[in-house]
Design brief:
Blueprint lengths: L1 E4 L10 E4 L5 E4 L3 E4 L5 E11 L6 E7 L4 E2 L10 E3 L4 E11 L16 E2 L2 E6 L4 E6 L2 E2 L1 E6 L2 E6 L11 E2 L4 E2 H14 L2
Length: about 190
């Protein structure tokens, strides 16, 4: 599982989008300075790429969208999405935030707003085996200097954590159900 920028020139890093006139989105190219009271809306857009190397269909469920949405799913739904054997699925994840979200009440930077931490569960079609995968990588930088906030996208060398890693032991769901059933039966 891999994640890549969904907009802009990838060779220039992860592009952070900013909402401009007429609610149109544009790429925030160079670092840009804002004042704390400014109202700016930003959007992070990533393509999550899932390749199924197995011989059976894979079911993808969103466990934690990290405040974002997948374009492929109606808002509020977690899936499932399916990847056929040998197939590839590209899902576009987007999250919006405002400049005020970058700082907490005391004016201290909140890095979690600028990090991509999506969790997905991948299972086989019979739901026999399942793995939970998580991404964790910076998608934007904010530099806070007094009343100034300088926003920018992540340069290419900063976008290194783009591969999802398993975060829990593999689950054998049918075996777990069978074990629970036999344990309940033996206690009677």
């Amino acid at each position: 599982m891999d994640a890549r920028p969904a907009v802009g020139d990838v060779s220039h890093g992860f592009p952070l989008e900013i909402r401009g006139d007429n609610d149109r989105w544009g790429i925030l190219g160079a670092p840009r300075e804002f004042k704390r009271g400014d109202h700016a809306v930003f959007r992070e857009s990533l393509n999550i790429i899932v390749e199924n190397v197995s011989a059976v269909p894979a079911r993808i469920d969103m466990i934690d969208p990290d405040g974002g949405v997948l374009d492929e799913l109606p808002e509020g739904h977690a899936g499932p999405l399916w990847v056929m054997p040998g197939g590839r699925l590209v899902m576009t994840w987007r999250r919006k935030f405002v400049l005020a979200d970058v700082l907490d009440q005391e004016g201290i930077q909140r890095p979690e707003v600028l990090v991509f931490r999506v969790k997905l569960m991948v299972r086989d079609v019979g739901m026999n085996v399942g793995d939970v995968y998580a991404f964790s990588g910076a998608v934007a930088y904010a530099e806070v200097d007094g009343s100034r906030i300088i926003m920018q996208g992540v340069p290419p060398e900063g976008w290194t954590d783009r591969v999802a890693v398993p975060i829990a032991p593999r689950r054998y769901e049918r075996l777990e159900v069978a074990d629970a059933t036999s344990a309940a039966g033996s206690s009677n």
